Amino acid sequence: MKSPEEIFEILKAEFQDAVVEIDSELPVEPIIIVDPLAINKIAQFLRVNEDLQFDSLMNLSGVDDANGEKITEEDGTVTIKGGTFSVYYHLHSTTIDHKVVLRVITDKNKPEVESVDPVWKASTWHEREAYDMYGIIFLNHPDLRRILLPDDWDGYPLRKDYENPEYYDGMKVPY
Amino acid sequence: MGLLDKEFADSNIVIAKVEDVMNWARLSSLWQLSFGLACCAIEMMATSASHYDFDRFGVMPRPTPRQVDVIIISGTVTLKMATRIKRLYEQMPDPKYIISMGSCANSGGPYWEHGYHVLKGIDRIIPVDVYVPGCPPRPEALLEGLLKLQEKIRNETLRTKKKTA
Ligand code: SF4
Fold first, then answer.
1. What's the CA-to-centroid distance between B33 and ligand 1, angstroms?
2. pLDDT at position B160, please?
3. Which residues contact B118 (CB under 8 A, 6 or more apart)?
C-alpha cells in the first residue's frame, strides 16, 4: 500500500514536469494535479506499475471551477471570462487496495484533455458525460457524443454561465 | 350501473343504448401503455401489483401503443422523452385517454424552476384527461384518478365530440 504522497513521489520521478503538485491542504484525501495532455501516459503507468497497479477507475467527473472573471455589463447581464475546468479521477487498486485522486486543470476556452479510454474502459461513458455537461473535449476518445441530452442540444448545462433555453424543438422550456 | 337495470328477468335479452354499451366496454378494459418515467413509475407499478391490483379495474399493461387505450404519464418528462411521448401518443388508436400522474407530469414538479431539461407539464404537448396530484401520488390516488377517468368515459356520447380541450 502506498500513501498519496508516496505515489506523488513515484510519479514525479517518472514524469517530472507533467506532474504539477500535490494538494494536501484539503478536508478530503490529497489530490495530485497533473498535466491534461499527459494524463493518458500517467494513467497507463499507474495501471501497469508493479507497486501501484491501479486497475480500477472508480469515478471520473468534470467540474467547473467557477474561477473566471465576472463582468457585469451596463444592462445588468453578467458574463464570465476565462477560468478553468477540472477533471477528477478516482482510482482504486483491487490487488493492493489503495486509492488515489488525480486532477487535471484545463483552460475554459480550449478545454482539451487526453482520454484515458485505452487504459480503463470504464471511462468511455464518464468522459462522454463530462463532455455532455461541460463541453470538455477528450482527445482520442473513440466515441465522443452526448450521452444524456439530445444530440441537437445547444450548450453545456453544468457550466456556470449556462443560460436555460427558451424553446427546445418547439416546446417552451421556462415554467 | 345503467346496463343491467333494464334486464328482462325471463330471457337472455338486455336492452340498452349503444352508447351505454360502448362506454361500459371501454371503461371496463382500459389497457395502459406499459411504460414509466421516474419515481412515480414505482408507485404506478405498486398499483399494478397484487396489493392494489389495477387489474381488477381492467387495467393491464400492453407493450405496444397500437393496442392501448390509456397512457399514464408517470413521472418527470424530460424534453428528450417528450418528443418520444408525443410519437407514442400519436401511434395510439382512438379513443385514447391520458392520465397525468404526479407533480412532474402536471407542471414540472420539483424541476419547475431550474429544470432546463424538463417539460413543465405534459399538457403542453398532449391533451390530458385526468390530473393526479402528489409527489408521488399514493396508489390510492392513482386509483381515484382511474375512477375519475371511468366516470368521464361513462358520460361520453356519440353525438358530441369526445375531447374539447
Ligand atoms: S412528481 Fe415527485 S415522485 Fe413523481 S416523478 Fe416527479 S419527483 Fe418523482
1. 19
2. 59
3. B76, B77, B78, B79, B104, B108, B109, B111, B112
C-alpha cell of residue A51: 507497486
* Amino acid, single-letter form, for residue B162: K
Do A130 and A114 touch, CB atoms closer than 8 A? no
Using CB distances shorter than 6 Å, the residues near ligand 1 are B 38-40, 75-76, 102-104, 109-110, 135-136
Q: Which positions 113-152 of A are in contact with B (Cβ < 8 Å)?
A: 149-150
Residue A8 makes CB contacts below 8 A (sequence gap 6+) with A19, A22, A30, A32
Is A111's pLDDT higher than 70?
yes
In this predicted model, what pLDDT tens digit does every residue of B71-129 receive, in sequence order? 999 999 999 999 999 999 999 998 899 999 999 999 999 998 888 999 999 999 999 99
Best CA proximity match to B89, nearest among B55, B43, B125: B125
Peptide bond into B95 cis (omega under 30): yes
What cell does A74 get?
451596463
Rounded to an integer, what distance in angstroms lies between the CA atom of residue B104 and that of residue B124?
Answer: 12
The 3-state secondary structure of A112-137 reads EEECCCCCCCCHHHHHHHHHHHHCCE
Average model confidence (pLDDT) across chain A: 91
- Whole-prediction pTM: 0.82
Flag whether residue B108 sits within 8 Å of chain A, measured between CB atoms.
yes
